[in-house]
Amino acid sequence: MSEFRDAALSAKAWPFQEARELLKRIGSKTPEKGYVLFETGYGPSGLPHIGTFGEVARTAMVQNAFHQLSDLPTKLFAFSDDLDGLRKVPDNVPNKDLLAEHLGKPLSSIPDPYGTHESFSAHNNARLKAFLDDFGFDYEFLSSTDCYKSGQFDETLMAVLKNYQAVINVILPTLGAERRATYSPFLPVCKKTGRVLQVGVKEQNVDAGTIVYEDTDGSLIETPVTGGHCKLQWKADWAMRWKALGVDYEMSGKDLIDSVKQSGAICRAIGGKPPAGFTYELFLDDRGEKISKSIGNGLSVEEWLSYASPESLSLFMYQKPKTAKRLFFDVIPRNIDDYLSHLSNFADLDDAKKIENPVWHIHRGHPPQPEIKVSYNILLNLAGVCNTEDKAVLWHFISRYRPDATPETAPSIDYLVGCAINYYRDFVKPNKRYRAPTDREKQALESLLAALNNIDAGAEAEDIQSIVYAIGKDGPFDDLKTWFKALYEILLGQSQGPRMGSFFALYGIEESKQLIQRALNGDDLAA
Predict the structure, then answer these.
(1) Residue 517 domain-assigned?
(2) Are 262 and 405 found together in one domain?
(3) Which of 489, 484, 373, 388 has the alpha carbon at shortest distance from 434?
């Protein structure tokens, strides 16, 4: 029995809520296939984006929560719909003319515009697997092309053919009159052109396992529905996959609510049972638009990881999955510091609280020990006042603040130091705007300088923060927020900043006094 099992039975964290519902649905008996199957789907018509990662990360969190509730074996499939026909050329790939020549062909039959893999989907699938591997997900990769052509889907494709009318009856009410006249769940792959055809089906021959369709030249062509000769329209395809693989759990975005209902109805029509599911909200870019892998808006996984830790990305995915969230560069610092805070608090919690802490879910129940207590925000501001892109300069201050800390003993902090320098260089430095203090602010700064002259060089951050707080409270300010904002604008060149006590402690009392004196002297702090 898991040490957390009793707590997990009543945990409020959303992965446990999902896991309990799934266990209730399955019961205590192992499914006939031998495991409980979690699935995520990916359409490789464009590069994998951060939303793709989010779906896998969240599904893995539910899978891990399930393990705390049950000893039933589980698997996670990452499924690529690479037999789908390319409908349009993505905006964010090279050699667009090359792709344009192959519109309509399966993604697995189109040359790779990057020139590194045997097909466009092979390139995108490799990218998907690489970042899933980098994050340590335990998954099996499945290719739609392989499943169709190997015959793995043949039995279920025949079930679709046998229940042809019931399947189209689910979809027809959702279509316009013109589309209803030609709709078929089967999309033949043309032997002459290799393209996936959207054509009307004239006959279905269940005994032969074939359909007859009208080709673009008016001729009638008979083709098997099995062996990769046809691909299903995607809602029917989704339903077929659920039945063929025995999928027990799959998430999807809010934009697919109706599709989930229709695919569920098709799955039941062909003798299957739709999986349990979870509807998550969509990610938005900096303009509030839905992110898209074909447009390439929002953030890529690689971009996030150049400015932040992998764990902070997982935290972003964990938090409020049913709330639409902006996914842009400005969310990064807060997510890093929130992660560090959750990690710092974890060891002091009892079991019931630990499984409610996001880091338990991010690290599959085994969070690491925190290294040293320093925030990303402070590292950003340290890079700013030092005006450096050299990690060694920042480590000079960090090691003096925490003598036992080095890049070797605190590798996660060392990684964040590099990330902070990147973020400072690209987003903070270009927007820094220092201002001179007003006469009233000068008085407060002089008081702060005098107070720092009277404390020990090794004073704790909290003691320094109390001094800063007291000066602001007694000074000529409407409220403390105005005082701290003045400190940020005058000393750091920005409207927001860290706890000044923590910053002064890390930067050093003597260096902080010099910084304040330079501001009082009217020196250019940006130099």
Answers:
(1) yes
(2) no
(3) 489
Q: What are phi and psi of 387, to 5 degrees?
A: 50, 55
Q: How far is Cα 482 from Cα 17, in angstroms, rounded to an integer?
A: 43
Domain boundary among 253, 283, 313: 283
The C-alpha angle 158, 41, 54, rounded to 5 degrees, equals 165
128-177 pLDDT per residue, tens: 898 789 889 999 999 999 999 999 999 999 999 999 999 999 999 999 98
For position 448, which CATH number holds?
Answer: 1.10.10.350
CA 286 to chain centre: 16
Cα–Cα distance between 167 and 263 in angstroms, integer?
A: 9
Q: What is d(CA 83, CA 105) in angstroms, rounded to the nearest whole number?
A: 8
Domain region containing 488: 439-521
pLDDT per residue as tens digits for the range 46-88: 777 788 889 999 999 999 999 999 999 999 999 999 999 999 9
Asked if 149 and 238 count as a contact pair (C-beta separation under 8 A), the reply is no
Report the phi/psi class of residue 143: left, alpha or beta, with left for phi > 0 and alpha for psi in -120 to 50: beta
* Same domain, yes or no: 50 and 32: yes
Based on the fold, state whether residues 171 and 270 are members of the same structural domain.
Answer: yes
Are residues 492 and 404 located together in one domain of the fold?
no
pLDDT over 50 (residue 99): yes
Pure H helices in 27-119 = 50-69, 96-100
Gyration radius of the chain's alpha carbons: 29
77-116 exposure pattern, b = at least 16 Cβ within 10 A, e = fewer: bbbbbbbbbbeebbeebeeeebbeebeebbbbbbbbbeee
On whether both 399 and 501 belong to a single domain, the answer is no
Please check whether residues 446 and 462 belong to one and the same domain: yes
Termini Cα distance of the chain = 61
Provide the number of structural domains found in the chain.
3
Contact 52, 283 (CB under 8 A): no
Dist CA 364 CA 384 (whole Å) = 36
pLDDT at 49: 74
């037999």: which residue's tokens?
83
Whose structure tokens read 């359409």? 43
Non-local (6+) Cβ contacts of 429 within 8 A are: 384
Find residue 205's DSSP bridge partners: 210
Helices assigned H by DSSP within 330-487:
332-346, 351-354, 358-362, 376-386, 391-401, 411-423, 439-453, 461-474, 480-487
Asked if 387 and 483 sit in the same domain, the reply is no
Asked if 472 and 422 sit in the same domain, the reply is no
- 385, 492 Cβ separation under 8 angstroms: yes
